[in-house]
Write a structure and sequence with these properties.
Elements (H helix, E strand, L loop, with lengths): L3 E10 L3 E11 L4 E5 L6 H9 L6 E6 L2 E2 L10 E4 L11 H12 L3 H14 L15 H13 L5 E5 L7 H18 L2 E6 L2 H7 L2 E6 L2 E6 L1 H6 L4 H6 L6 E10 L2 E6 L2 E5 L15 E6 L4 E4 L7 E10 L4 E7 L19 E5 L10 E6 L5 E4 L5 E4 L1
Helix pairs in contact: 2-3, 2-4
């Protein structure tokens, strides 16, 4: 086992295309680190540099305290699991798993012992004589993992290994991979574009965008305290509501203005130093589960209209628009703009229909503010 350290690692393609830009990150021994972000964010390029399959333009990359910038892939002692399994179709499961050991020159007895151990861990004992074409997608992925496990590497590298599986099998394999990683205790770097995978699997999650690390933290901390508007809008399903608004100081309260509607949050400017300056236009963020239905007679509420409802069995996702005279659903960055102002999670038996007028309030303790220009957090409780 070994720790992995990226120290200002940059990868430039051509003259000026920075796929990875100054990545600095430490991955501890035995840690399950997930790289997540949209397509083109640099996560796979970072993984390929770690594997030695892409050269590093600048910065240093270390495994177990040894700089590996110029070390050949076969000498880095890492094992990679690919998206497409990369199995040999003419070989049995047993021979696929043990092939790297055979090439390395291990004895037949040692190969059998290690293959049997890996097969037991992966529940593949009954399939060792089969060829890949006789296996399901999940079984093939287990074989690919077995091929990595038998090498007893310093680190596992996984590049979207579940993307070819159906939804139900993806859930099962998420649990399986997490179980195996905990059992082996080997540092693992896992690349995915799926934030649900990132949230459910990683000890920590590194969020990347345009080659730059946006934030790295535990899944829950990323969800509760995003460093910027991008992380807030990317992590979570459905994502955080992000609304353009204006803030001003009221008596013992912060007033948040959405067009011609105003709500007050019970925060005191005189006793808090983490509030956005009064008088600014900012982006207000609130999670769907923190949008609460209010009684029509209650104060401090927003008037909305139901545009769409999605019944999911255990809950309903309700898409709401603010009154047309105060529609502020557009975020200052186009990729986070949404056609309706708010999404709320409601109980499965909430009687609500498209076209209904609904009054909502926000759970003030979970509200966020972001700078309009930079997207950086101004306040996140």
């Amino acid at each position: 086992m070994a720790e992995i350290t990226f120290d200002g690692v940059t990868k430039v393609f051509g003259d000026d295309i920075k796929a990875v830009d100054g990545l600095s990150l430490n991955i501890a021994e035995g840690e399950f680190m997930v790289f997540v972000g949209p397509s083109g964010c640099g996560k796979t390029t970072a993984l390929l540099m770690l594997a030695g399959l892409e050269d590093i333009t600048s910065g240093t990359l270390s495994i177990g305290g040894t700089v590996v910038n110029n070390v050949l892939p076969k000498h880095r002692d890492v094992a990679m699991v690919f998206q497409n399994y990369a199995l040999y179709p003419h070989m049995s499961v047993e021979k696929n798993i043990g092939f790297a050991l055979k090439i390395r020159g291990d004895s037949k007895a040692e190969i059998k012992r290690k293959v049997d151990e890996a097969a037991t861990i992966l529940h593949l004992n009954d399939f060792l004589d089969r060829r890949p074409k006789a296996l399901s997608g999940g079984q093939r992925q287990r074989v690919a993992m077995g091929r990595a496990i038998v090498r007893n590497p310093q680190a596992f590298l996984m590049d979207e290994p579940l993307s070819n599986l159906d939804a139900k099998l993806r859930v099962e394999m998420r649990l399986e991979i997490a179980r195996i990683q905990r059992l082996l205790g080997v540092a693992t770097v896992y690349v995915t574009h799926d934030q649900v995978e990132a949230m459910t699997m990683g000890d920590r999650v590194a969020v990347l965008r345009d080659g730059k690390l946006q934030q790295v933290d535990t899944p829950q901390h990323l969800y509760d305290r995003p460093a910027n508007e991008f992380v807030a809008g990317f992590m979570g399903s459905p994502p955080m509501n992000l609304l353009r608004c204006h803030v001003r100081a009221g008596k013992d309260r912060v007033q948040v203005v959405f067009g011609d509607q105003v709500i007050e949050l019970p925060w005191d400017y005189t006793s808090s130093h983490d509030l956005p300056p009064a008088g600014l236009d900012v982006v207000f963020g609130v999670r769907p589960e923190d949008v609460l239905v209010a009684d029509a007679q209650s104060t401090n509420k927003l008037k909305t209209r139901v545009e769409r409802r999605e019944a999911l069995g255990s809950e309903i996702l309700v898409h709401l628009s603010l009154d047309s005279s105060s529609d502020t659903s557009q975020s200052p960055r186009g990729e986070l703009a949404r056609p309706v102002a708010l999404v709320a999670k409601m109980g499965p038996r909430q009687k609500i229909a498209v076209g209904d007028v609904v009054f909502v309030q926000f759970a003030a303790e979970h509200a966020h503010f972001f700078d309009v220009a930079s997207g950086e957090t101004l306040r996140s409780r």
